[in-house]
Amino acid sequence: MRRLLTAVVAAALLVFAAAAARAATPCEPCTLPTGTYHVAVPPDWDGRSKLRLLLFLHGWRQHGTQITGDANIAGVANRLGFLLVAPDGVEGPHGSGWGFVGSPEKDRDDLAFLLAVVADAERRWPIDLDAVVAGGFSMGGSMVWDLACYRPKYFTAFIPFSGGFWDPLPARCDAGAVALRHTHGLHDHMVPLIGRPIMDGRFRQGDILEGLMRWRSEDRCEAEPDQVTDESNLTCSRWTQCDAPGEVELCLHDGDHSMIAPWLEASLRWTMTARSLPALAP
Questions:
Q1: What is the DSSP string of the chain?
Q2: Which of 33, 189, 220, 251 has the greatest number of CB atoms lying within 10 Å of its CB?
Q3: In the chain, how many domains are there?
C-alpha cells in the first residue's frame, strides 16, 4: 500500500511539474536555429490561464524589440489578454525585412521561420488555439498577407496594416477561407493603395484593392460589402455574406503610412467576433 501511495504521489508531482512547465517557460530573446523573437506577457496574467497569441511583424529595418518595447502596441495587446510575440526579420543587404513573394529578402524561409516561432511560443506558454492572430505593419503587413495565403490554417485571423501582396500577386491561395481585416491610409506614400515600383523598378508593391479581391474570392463573398461602419477615424467595409466561414474587412483612414493604438485595438477586438476557424498547432 505504501508503495502504491508513493507511486501515486510521484505521478501527481510529475503531472504538477509538467503543468507548471506548460504554464510558462520565459526567454528573452527566444532563440531558434533560424532566428530570434521577443515576447511581452500581460502583466496581470496569473501564470496559468490560457493566453491569446498575437504574432506581430515589424516594418522594414526594424526589430522585434521595437514592437514589444512600444507601449501602445504591447499595452493594447496585453490589456486584451494577448501574449505579444515579435520576431526579428532577417538581416539582409537591404536591412532587416521579410521574405515574402516578390520581396528582395531571400535569405531565409520566413513562412517556415514564423510557424516555428508560433510553435515555440505554444510550447512555452499555454496558448488558446481559438485565438492565434497574425498582424504586422508595412513590410510586416505584407508578410502577413503571405501567411494568410500560404499558411492560413495555423492562425485564426489576420490583421495587416499598411502592407499587402507584392507583384506577382498569387493566382490562387491555399487559404480556402480566412478572417482578414486590412487597415490602410488613403494617402499612404510608402505603400500606396495602387502599389508602386521600388528599387529602380526591380520590385513592385501590389495593388491593395486588387489583392483584396483574392480574399473575397477565397471566402466566396458577395461583390459589395454588406456593412460599412465608421470607428476610430476609420471607414470599414465588411464582407460577412460569404459562403466560406471566413470574413473580410477593409478599413481606410485619411492619413499616411501609420498605425495607432485605437486601430490595433479595433482590429484585435474584431478578431474576437469575426467568423474564423480554430488554428492548428504548427
A1: -HHHHHHHHHHHHHHHHHHHHHH----SSEEETTEEEEEE--TT--SSS-EEEEEEE--TT--HHHHHT-HHHHHHHHHTTEEEEEEPPEEETTEEE---TT-S--SS-HHHHHHHHHHHHHHHS-EEEEEEEEEEETHHHHHHHHHHHHSGGG-SEEEEES--PBSSPPS--S-SS-EEEEEEETT-SSS-TT-EEETTTTEEEPPHHHHHHHHHHHTTB-SS-SEEEEETTEEEEEE--BSSS-EEEEEEESSSS---HHHHHHHHHHHTTS---PPPP-
A2: 251
A3: 1
Pairing mode of beta strands 179-185, 247-253: parallel
Q: For residue 199, what are the contacts with CB-CB under 8 A and spacing of at least 6?
A: 94, 104
Q: pLDDT digits over 40-68, tens only?
A: 999 999 999 999 999 999 999 899 999 99
Q: What is the pTM of this model?
A: 0.89
> Phi and psi at residue 117, in whole multiples of 5°?
-60, -50
Q: What is the CATH number of the domain that holds 177?
A: 3.40.50.1820
In this structure, the dihedral spanned by the alpha carbons of residues 264, 265, 270 and 272, taken in order and rounded to 10 degrees, is: 120
Q: Please determine, for residue 86, whether its predicted confidence score (pLDDT) is greater than 90.
A: yes
Q: What is the model's pLDDT at position 195? A: 96
> In Å, how far are 83, 125, 231, 242, 266 from 252, measured between CA atoms?
27, 34, 10, 21, 13
Q: Considering the domain boundaries, does residue 211 fall inside one?
A: yes
What are the phi and psi torsion angles at 208 (to 5°)?
A: -65, -45
Q: Which domain holds residue 189?
A: 32-271
- The verdict on residue 277 lying in a domain is no
Is 10 within a domain? no
- Measured CA to CA, the distance from residue 148 to residue 173 in angstroms comes to 8
Query: CA-CA distance, 87 to 38, in Å (whole number)?
Result: 6
